[in-house]
Design brief:
The protein is α+β, with helices and mostly antiparallel strands. 34% of the residues lie in helices and 18% in strands. Strand 11 and strand 12 form a beta hairpin.
Length: 376
């Protein structure tokens, strides 16, 4: 049997330079305040690109400028829980009722909602349940009480029902353990990975040596700096992590198994196993021509593009957008952080992976031709 070993020199290819040019051209056209781009590829130095400033009169965005990750935080939470399971501190089969006995979440007949349903966005309740209460800055216990009264759309584990409020269960669980989610994930994930500027929480963001201020649109391609809201930070397992390009380089490498003593292959395979189908993702305007299948795993979306799996998640809170994605097959990781709520991130991320996969096909075909030629 002939086995091909392909080493894809992604950063040496001109298409990456073209993408970097498009990235900055888009930022300039949209008058974005700032962004940071990270590309990790096999046998290549990490590629960084930066644009803009922390705010109008601020400093230039660089490798250690901290951004909010918003829902990309869910990828950190998933890995943290996988580690807790590995250490036998929790199990994926723990029910929410076991975690918080004082609340009643299991109102679907004879079917408990498990930790894997929470992390896997398959609780069965109406999507984004009571996000309006997060926006209104309701206190966490009051929101959890509201969740007790929800009616189910489907049995837990059957359908995709994206949530933020349910992650408050983890926030409250660790508080009742006389600690905090922020402290636990910091000592279990952030510190062992030696992330230089990553943190959890609003105060930690604003205490950073350099951080990108949030910006909201006041008109087409016009942005104004706004204050950092703390409402979603109260649900830090859902949206509370802060990180820089330097941190995201480490995070991507960890997802690609470069830190196996901390995050091992079994953990990543568990998290990225397709679990519930996400049909609506197939119709996303920038992705629908590429996607052939889409699922949610545990804390990650799983996209199939030309039989290549792209493990992805996006994030959005007031003033920030973030995307992260990696391909275990290609060994490539991508992250894009913005301190503005610009939908341009959707097209940029989809374009990157379209070009990446096309470049991979070209290199693969070229290597096959070389191997075939060597037989004569």
């Amino acid at each position: 049997m002939l086995v091909l070993s392909l080493s894809f020199p992604v950063c040496a290819n001109t298409w990456v330079d073209d993408f970097a040019h498009e990235l900055k051209a888009t930022a300039k056209k949209k008058k974005l305040p700032g962004l940071a781009f990270v590309l990790v590829a096999p046998n290549q130095p990490t590629r960084f690109e930066f644009y803009g400033r922390t705010e109008k009169s601020g400093t230039s965005i660089d490798k250690e400028t901290v951004f909010r990750l918003a829902s990309v935080s869910k990828t950190f939470t998933a890995v943290f829980i996988a580690q807790q399971v590995k250490e036998k501190k929790l199990t994926w089969k723990n029910s929410l009722q076991e975690l918080l006995p004082d609340y009643k979440f299991d109102n679907y007949i004879n079917t408990p909602i498990l930790l894997q349903h929470l992390i896997g966005q398959s609780t069965g309740f109406i999507p984004n349940a009571y996000d309006n209460l997060i926006e209104a800055n309701y206190k966490l216990p009051r929101v959890l009480e509201h969740l007790e009264n929800l009616d189910s759309l489907c049995r837990p584990g059957i359908c995709y029902t994206y949530q933020n409020t349910f992650f408050g269960v983890l926030e409250e669980y660790y508080r009742q353990q006389k600690t905090t989610f922020a402290d636990e994930i910091t000592k279990s994930i952030i510190v062992p990975l030696k992330m230089p500027t990553a943190s959890v929480g609003r105060n930690a963001l604003m205490a950073s040596k350099k951080w990108a201020k949030p910006h909201a649109a006041i008109d087409k391609n016009e942005w104004v700096s706004v204050r950092v809201k703390d409402n979603y930070y109260k649900y830090s397992p859902a949206a509370g992590v802060n990180a820089s390009a330097a941190d995201m380089e480490i995070w991507l490498k960890a997802m690609l198994l470069e830190y196996p003593d901390i995050i091992d292959k079994n953990m990543i395979e568990t998290l990225t196993k397709p679990r519930v189908k996400t049909k609506r993702e197939l119709y996303r305007s920038e992705w629908r021509k590429q996607l052939t299948d889409a699922h949610y795993g545990l804390g990650w979306r799983i996209y199939n593009v030309d039989d290549i799996e792209i493990i992805y998640h996006g994030g959005w809170v007031q003033g920030y957008r973030a995307d992260i994605a990696f391909s275990p097959q290609l060994g490539v990781g991508y992250a894009l952080l913005m301190n503005a709520e610009s939908n341009s991130i959707n097209k940029l991320t989809a374009t990157f992976w379209k070009d990446q996969i096309e470049a991979h096909k070209i290199v693969t075909l070229a290597d096959i031709k070389k191997v075939n030629t060597s037989h004569y």
